[in-house]
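On clarity, I found the account of how folds are encoded harder to follow than it need be. For illustration, here is how one protein appears when written out as sequence plus structure tokens.
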Amino acid sequence: MRFSVQSVGMSLQETVLMQLRDRILSGEFEPGQRLAEQQLAEQLGASRTPVRAALGTLEQEGLVEANEAGKYLVRRFTPREVADAIAVRGHLEGMAARLVAEHGLPRQLQLDLQACLEEGDAVLAAKKPDYDSYAGYAAMNDRFHGLILQACGNRALQRAVALNNSLPFAPPSAMLPMQSALPQDWDWMRYAHRQHHMLFDALQRGEGARAQALAMEHTEVAQMNMRLALERRAETERVLPAMRLVVGR
């Protein structure tokens, strides 16, 4: 799925970030490939400023690295590395959810989480997913996860999550299924948001063990999205050489 940056109404930086992250996961940008600001800006119909900002975020996420000349190169990562990072996030966020449930849900946190749920419900009511929808859901998703982590009160845990989020595709919204417009992807997002609702219910009821289990289970959606993305990538890599042979005849 590809959309011009100019065709959507969200932040240019956020749009550029989503598309660059998408292309790295799909294999369109190969490990070691240099990502030039000007070239990317022309491809995406954006200025260099949002591209530069997006590349900085990708560096923080461990998807690109700067060489000695300050040029950004796509970082090499393995499926196992991504899966391990997501699994660690599940355990850390599970602990955070349990702490919040056991401490009791403050009124303001309850209102903020409810607002996230309502926003996610509205996004998922859209009939046709596009980058606007994905961006809206991603912003809500990051806020929902961040609120729980902030409320847990454990600074060591918060630092551990921040460190883990610097690994490839480890952050909560990094593995949203944006590689295609398949209904299957939208269904996975609906399922993930139902888990948000169940987690909120556990937090309200003070059910620490249940909240922890739900938060850990929630990361399985990210694991599934990664597996689906890698399957599509492998299929593309298998089909493209055959297509080139046919075209070259």
About this structure: The CA atoms of residues 2 and 19 lie 8 Å apart. The chain is about 70% helix and 5% strand. Residues 1-10, 240-247 have pLDDT under 50 and may be disordered.
